[in-house]
Amino acid sequence: MLQWMLVISGLLVLLAGLGTAISVWHWWHAPIAGTIHTQQAGDAELVRIKLQPGQSAQRIANELASQNLLERPEWFVWWLRWQDQAHLIRAGEYDINPHWTPAQLRDALLAGGRVRHPFTIVPGETLAQVRQKIQGLENIRHTLNDEEWLKLGERWAAMGVTPFLEGWLLPETYFYQAGEADWQLVERAVLAMVATLNQAWSSSNEAEGLPLRSPYEVLILASIIEKETGVAHEREMISGVFVRRLQRNMRLQTDPTVIYGMGDAYQGRIGRAGLDTPTPYNTYIIRGLPPTPIAMPSAAAVMAAVNPDQGDYLFFVAKGGGEHHFSVTYEEHRRAVRRYILNRP
């Protein structure tokens, strides 16, 4: 009798172990959120979570379970510890897919949060505007004070970047992860502009008499082109006007530089006072280029600066719709001003 009881007990233990093994096997291959949850989720929209540095595997598993993203959190933690991986989970932001298996969840947590946030620099924005946008981001570490922003370019001085970063951030959409520092976002845009500027400078033909002595002067001219027109087919024409004016020692007489030099004094209208007030950026008074760029130029504007059209235009005036009327002679330009600005025949 005792022998049979031992046999039966052994079979029960075996069956219990087999049942547990089957449950574990099923858990291992099933969605982490469970069958019922994932059926309700349909296409399973990703759920974003943020793991802070120092969180334990148990706390992370419990947090996922509280959001109905992980069945059997204790099994998941036990498995991580058995594999000696519990301490390898990395802080960061994660987009969790309820259809993942435990193995896929583990791989994601060990690889680190890969959620990427977009950050866009728009052509024509100034450094002050870009800085304000960066300072408004919630997912980055803000490390730069006012003084550091003014000389941030010193970090990349070996590449020819000036301490003051106006013009040096290439307008594009960049992606970053939570926890990155503000200067790292700036660095991406600076390196992109350096590459763009070097390519433009190396492709320019200085034998044609381009009156630009350095890549930085290309950047300055490109920023003016960017502010003068957003019409693609006009960029080279605008560039041509300014290049010919520089070659003839004519003043550039471009309003965007005046506006930049006015700073907060500009309230939507330049006026006679603005035109008559001397500043390093008032190209109605100074000859040549202003001392710095006045905005962030697009790659297209940079290329236009080293590829001016070969026409004869020396003047242009806005005629509406973002386009301009170009003139060869001053008399023709005066007629265009009367027509498009003063509305006179």
Structure notes:
It catalyses: a peptidoglycan chain = a peptidoglycan chain with N-acetyl-1,6-anhydromuramyl-[peptide] at the reducing end + a peptidoglycan chain with N-acetylglucosamine at the non-reducing end. Functions as a peptidoglycan terminase that cleaves nascent peptidoglycan strands endolytically to terminate their elongation. It comes from Thiomicrospira aerophila AL3. This is Endolytic murein transglycosylase. The protein is mainly α. The chain has three domains: 31-111, Dna Ligase, domain 1; 117-197, no CATH class; 203-340, no CATH class. Helix content is 46%, strand content 8%. The protein is built from 14 helices and six strands. The protein has a two-stranded antiparallel ribbon with strand order 1-2. A two-stranded antiparallel ribbon has the order 3-4. A two-stranded antiparallel ribbon has the order 5-6.
List keywords for this structure.
3 domains, two-stranded antiparallel ribbon, Dna Ligase, domain 1, 6 strands, mainly alpha, single chain, elongated, 345 residues, 14 helices
Helix content: 40-55%
Shape: elongated
Distance between the termini: 121 Å
- Low-confidence segments: 6-19, 36-43
* Quantity of strands, as a count: 6
